[in-house]
Amino acid sequence: MKFDTSGLESHGQLVGASDGLFSGFPTAPSFEIPNTTDFDCFQKEAIQMVKPAKGTTTLAFIFKEGVMVAADSRASMGGYISSQSVKKIIEINPYMLGTMAGGAADCQFWHRNLGIKCRLHELANKRRISVTGASKLLANILYNYRGMGLSVGTMIAGWDETGPGLYYVDSEGGRLKGMRFSVGSGSPYAYGVLDNGYRYDMSVDEAAELARRAIYHATFRDGASGGVASVYYVGPDGWKKLSGDDVAELHYNYYPVQPSVVEQVMVET
Amino acid sequence: IFEYNGSAIVAMVGKNCFAIASDRRLGVQLQTIATDFQRIYKIHDKLFIGLAGLATDAQTLYQKLVFRHKLYQLREERDMKPQTFASLVSALLYEKRFGPFFCQPVIAGLGDEDKPFICTMDSIGAKELAKDFVVAGTASESLYGACEAMFKPDMEAEELFETISQALLSSVDRDCLSGWGGHVYVVTATEVTERILKGRMD
């Protein structure tokens, strides 16, 4: 039994009516599913294991000049840090970015899949897909897999004809449009700094500093976030990586160590 | 439950000296509450105990130990030897065998003729004496690896400090639940040096 993968098929047939000669044409990928009694919930336990693993901090916000996207770079497996240099901002195409939170494999695969669908849309319609459309495509695909254990908490940020766009999409099938989002275990800390310092009319540098600061504070407080704070900017001509600062250095930049008086105690022997 | 607060403690033996180091983070699972939490306590000038594991049990156990040691000092009119102290801790922990303290002590001291002594225990009092180094806490596996690689016998105090600091910092950098700085005590026959390490604050 093959699962319904109509969400993964390309638009229409690119060749004429099937007449046997083209039976070798590549069909869309489909996933085999296991034979279980409880098809919809067989991965419940796997989900519970993966659930706390949204150990990360990502954030994005819209401001006057465009969209600012930032993330940390730590991957944790429970208490163990498996990597301090994970790329959590995924480049879908030259004018759209997606952030990764949750399962790394899930996010990477579905973002790449989204990139493919966006490019096909461009070729079929002779114009770029809007951020609204791209996020809707992703949300619909993820909704089909709802309850099966995918763990994806992503933000799609981009610049299209209507200006900057930012959507939050997750593996429960939710899709929200907004001006400011932060996702991951460090998001409460990032929200605190972000909400406090946010103004719509900031310059690119001010916005970058706000994003960097918010990620830094989240890495300080949250054990599952850390590594390098990368900041990307999405403007009318596409995205640009602004900075990737090691969080340890940021700490000592923001809070330099005050040399304290060293006391020496002499004790009678 | 040992991973509720997060901790990392290591003690190493040198030439007529020892060093004991800990991280400084106090957290509640993933959230960091404090970055100046003290895990290593002085019992007397030549005896230190570091307590890894649940922070509340570590503090209570420390208070009980200080009480017992002060009584001992009053009765015997001298300080406790590290070996005796280790047996005391072991007995106290085993008293609570069926409702234990959730902490792992690391004991380090200078015994007769200033011979360094280190040992660690599990949470119900099983002593593990070692000649080179002992580790405890959430980062203990990384610490074992780092110490094994960096340790050399008979190091002087300065070199011992460098070694133990590097081992601690590199191990806690692989652990989400410990770090945020380091606290190192190096104890020789004549002096005790306390140093605070600048570490990765993430």
UniProtKB/TrEMBL annotation, chain A:
<dbReference type="InterPro" id="IPR000243">
    <property type="entry name" value="Pept_T1A_subB"/>
</dbReference>
<dbReference type="GO" id="GO:0005737">
    <property type="term" value="C:cytoplasm"/>
</dbReference>
<comment type="similarity">
    <text>Belongs to the peptidase T1B family.</text>
</comment>
<comment type="function">
    <text>Component of the proteasome, a multicatalytic proteinase complex which is characterized by its ability to cleave peptides with Arg, Phe, Tyr, Leu, and Glu adjacent to the leaving group at neutral or slightly basic pH. The proteasome has an ATP-dependent proteolytic activity.</text>
</comment>
<keyword id="KW-0645">Protease</keyword>
<keyword id="KW-0647">Proteasome</keyword>
<dbReference type="GO" id="GO:0004298">
    <property type="term" value="F:threonine-type endopeptidase activity"/>
</dbReference>
<comment type="subunit">
    <text>Component of the proteasome complex.</text>
</comment>
<keyword id="KW-0963">Cytoplasm</keyword>
<dbReference type="InterPro" id="IPR023333">
    <property type="entry name" value="Proteasome_suB-type"/>
</dbReference>
<keyword id="KW-0865">Zymogen</keyword>
<dbReference type="GO" id="GO:0005839">
    <property type="term" value="C:proteasome core complex"/>
</dbReference>
<keyword id="KW-0888">Threonine protease</keyword>
<dbReference type="Pfam" id="PF00227">
    <property type="entry name" value="Proteasome"/>
</dbReference>
<dbReference type="GO" id="GO:0051603">
    <property type="term" value="P:proteolysis involved in protein catabolic process"/>
</dbReference>
<comment type="function">
    <text>The proteasome is a multicatalytic proteinase complex which is characterized by its ability to cleave peptides with Arg, Phe, Tyr, Leu, and Glu adjacent to the leaving group at neutral or slightly basic pH. The proteasome has an ATP-dependent proteolytic activity.</text>
</comment>
<dbReference type="InterPro" id="IPR016050">
    <property type="entry name" value="Proteasome_bsu_CS"/>
</dbReference>
<dbReference type="InterPro" id="IPR001353">
    <property type="entry name" value="Proteasome_sua/b"/>
</dbReference>
<protein>
    <recommendedName>
        <fullName>Proteasome subunit beta</fullName>
    </recommendedName>
</protein>
<dbReference type="GO" id="GO:0005634">
    <property type="term" value="C:nucleus"/>
</dbReference>
<dbReference type="InterPro" id="IPR029055">
    <property type="entry name" value="Ntn_hydrolases_N"/>
</dbReference>
<feature type="active site" description="Nucleophile">
    <location>
        <position position="56"/>
    </location>
</feature>
Automatic annotation (TrEMBL), chain B:
<protein>
    <recommendedName>
        <fullName>Proteasome subunit beta</fullName>
    </recommendedName>
</protein>
<dbReference type="GO" id="GO:0005634">
    <property type="term" value="C:nucleus"/>
</dbReference>
<dbReference type="InterPro" id="IPR023333">
    <property type="entry name" value="Proteasome_suB-type"/>
</dbReference>
<dbReference type="InterPro" id="IPR029055">
    <property type="entry name" value="Ntn_hydrolases_N"/>
</dbReference>
<comment type="function">
    <text>Component of the proteasome, a multicatalytic proteinase complex which is characterized by its ability to cleave peptides with Arg, Phe, Tyr, Leu, and Glu adjacent to the leaving group at neutral or slightly basic pH. The proteasome has an ATP-dependent proteolytic activity.</text>
</comment>
<keyword id="KW-0539">Nucleus</keyword>
<dbReference type="GO" id="GO:0005737">
    <property type="term" value="C:cytoplasm"/>
</dbReference>
<keyword id="KW-0647">Proteasome</keyword>
<dbReference type="InterPro" id="IPR033811">
    <property type="entry name" value="Proteasome_beta_3"/>
</dbReference>
<comment type="similarity">
    <text>Belongs to the peptidase T1B family.</text>
</comment>
<keyword id="KW-0963">Cytoplasm</keyword>
<dbReference type="GO" id="GO:0019774">
    <property type="term" value="C:proteasome core complex, beta-subunit complex"/>
</dbReference>
<dbReference type="InterPro" id="IPR016050">
    <property type="entry name" value="Proteasome_bsu_CS"/>
</dbReference>
<comment type="subunit">
    <text>Component of the proteasome complex.</text>
</comment>
<dbReference type="InterPro" id="IPR001353">
    <property type="entry name" value="Proteasome_sua/b"/>
</dbReference>
<dbReference type="Pfam" id="PF00227">
    <property type="entry name" value="Proteasome"/>
</dbReference>
<dbReference type="GO" id="GO:0043161">
    <property type="term" value="P:proteasome-mediated ubiquitin-dependent protein catabolic process"/>
</dbReference>
<comment type="function">
    <text>Non-catalytic component of the proteasome, a multicatalytic proteinase complex which is characterized by its ability to cleave peptides with Arg, Phe, Tyr, Leu, and Glu adjacent to the leaving group at neutral or slightly basic pH. The proteasome has an ATP-dependent proteolytic activity.</text>
</comment>
